[in-house]
Write a structure and sequence with these properties.
Layout: H1 3-24, E1 36-44, H2 50-61, E2 71-76, E3 92-98, H3 101-109, H4 111-120, E4 124-133
């Protein structure tokens, strides 16, 4: 083996070994961008009404305009596997993220949130909210 081929062979081996070691190392968890999560689940008064569901989804999406809301995900029940631990009795959900608890508190009294409640509360029978902060 000439010296150029030997050098290429050795460098390839070193690179392969380094890649193997790097892939075996545990990943460092990413820092959560917005540490406060606000998750609301809505049960519709008329759960079979696609029109009511669409109105509520549209209403929830208006909350993204609130300055303190950094991210918003609006969803409907997914057709996932039915298991004892899965609750699919609700109709619409929203998960929003805030920089801090002060932002979440200001969201509660923001005029856009107040207007959303005024315009959409007739659509839901029940709401449950889960607030969490990064551990």
């Amino acid at each position: 083996m000439n010296s150029l081929n030997r050098k290429t062979f050795l460098l390839s081996g070193v690179a392969l070994a380094a890649g193997t070691v790097a892939s075996a190392m545990p990943a460092v968890p990413a820092k959560i961008k917005y540490p406060v999560a606000h998750h609301a689940l809505f049960w519709l008064k008329n759960p079979t009404s696609m029109e009511d569901r669409a109105k509520l989804v549209a209403g929830v999406k208006t909350l993204a305009k609130i300055k303190a809301v950094k991210e918003l995900h609006v969803g409907i029940v997914a057709s996932t596997e039915k298991r004892e631990v899965v609750d699919n009795s609700w109709g619409v959900s929203e998960i929003m993220f805030f920089d801090d608890l002060e932002g979440q508190a200001s969201y509660q009294t923001d005029p856009i949130h107040v207007e959303f409640i005024k315009n959409c509360e007739h659509l839901w029978e029940k709401v449950i909210v889960y607030d969490a902060i990064q551990a």
